From TrEMBL:
Occurrences of domain Thioredoxin (ranges): 35-192
GO molecular function: antioxidant activity; thyroxine 5'-deiodinase activity
Keywords from the UniProt entry: Membrane, Transmembrane, Transmembrane helix
Cited InterPro entries: AhpC/TSA, Iodothyronine_deiodinase, Thioredoxin-like_sf, Thioredoxin_domain
Keyword Transmembrane helix tagged: yes
Protein name: Alkyl hydroperoxide reductase/ Thiol specific antioxidant/ Mal allergen
Domain of life: Bacteria
Keyword Transmembrane: yes
């Protein structure tokens, strides 16, 4: 098979119509051979929403380190990172170049399907920039996801890259903003980040859940259904988080964790009582159940 046909086949597999269990599981881990601290980035030449280019040569010419973030309009992780990225840009944008690369839609739906041509992808990128109010570059990967796949094709990772094109820091999830800021401050001070890579998947998913209604709602019919089919535990977390819609998104994490634990403990206790033989149930438990029933 030729290189060209291989690229076409990989690009077709990359442009998912809906996430699958396999895709979700792949998103949750970073293989040891993926790009990370100490690696040079691949050649980049991408258009931006404002008519410019984000290129490898422009990195050196600009002279500033880069915070490079991958994301999409239907990605709940990107949605939950947006406000924090704006805040980081306000504080460090004069000494750090911020670039978001619009990639494949993480959770396409009826209103935002997976782009099939570059014009559709550019349209989504402009909407992404406008939705978040990003005052920095939003570049658009090609329809095959060439740059995204070179970095690992996770839905929304973040990288800090020095002016010579070497990665100095990698965050598996772009919404884990505290370690990203810590790494930015180290780079600005001329030091290597104390941590070259950060995962914190559980924390990222909890934060993501509070913003999923926005991203999946924008995607339209089918997006939430496909999430349930591909990743029921994550979808259940989203459902629990939705109980706290009366709170601002950034304040939903703690009650979501508490409620999820309470539901889990209650369910586990119920299963234990159902499955345990009656004679094995502690006498005190039976007495409490009998007392409760007598009061009904």
């Amino acid at each position: 098979m030729t290189t060209a046909s291989t690229t076409l086949d990989e690009g077709a597999r990359y442009r998912i119509d809906r996430p699958t269990f396999k895709v979700i599981m792949r998103d949750l881990r970073i293989p040891s051979n993926d790009l990370g601290a100490g690696d040079a980035i691949p050649d980049v030449d991408l258009p931006t929403t404002e008519g410019g280019r984000f290129t490898t040569d422009s990195i050196a010419a600009d002279g500033r380190p880069i915070l490079l973030v991958f994301g999409s309009l239907t990605c709940p992780v990107t949605e939950s990172a947006g406000r924090g990225l704006l805040d980081l840009h306000r504080r460090y944008g004069d000494v750090i170049r911020f670039v978001v690369v619009n990639v494949r839609e993480a959770h396409p739906g009826a209103d935002i399907p997976q782009p099939r041509v570059i014009g559709e992808k550019m349209h989504n990128a402009r909407n992404l920039k406008g939705h978040h109010g990003f005052a920095f570059e939003v570049a658009v990967d090609d329809i095959h996801g060439s740059v995204h796949r070179a970095f690992g094709a996770r839905p929304s990772s973040a990288y800090i890259i020095d002016p010579s094109g070497i990665i100095v820091f990698r965050a598996h999830w772009s919404n884990i903003l505290e370690p990203i800021e810590e790494a930015l401050r180290a780079v600005i001070a001329g030091r290597a980040p104390s941590r070259a890579k950060v995962g914190q998947t559980a924390r990222a998913l909890i934060r993501m859940a509070a913003y999923s209604d926005v991203a999946l709602g924008a995607a339209g019919r089918g997006a939430l259904r496909d999430f349930w089919r591909a990743a029921p535990p994550a979808a259940a977390l989203i459902a629990v988080s939705s109980l706290f819609r009366f709170l601002p998104s950034e304040r939903r994490a703690a009650p979501t964790v508490t409620a999820t634990l309470a539901i889990g403990i209650t369910a586990a206790t119920g299963m234990w009582l159902l499955l345990m033989p009656l004679h094995a149930v502690p006498r005190r438990v039976l007495q409490l159940v009998a007392l409760r029933m007598s009061r009904c």
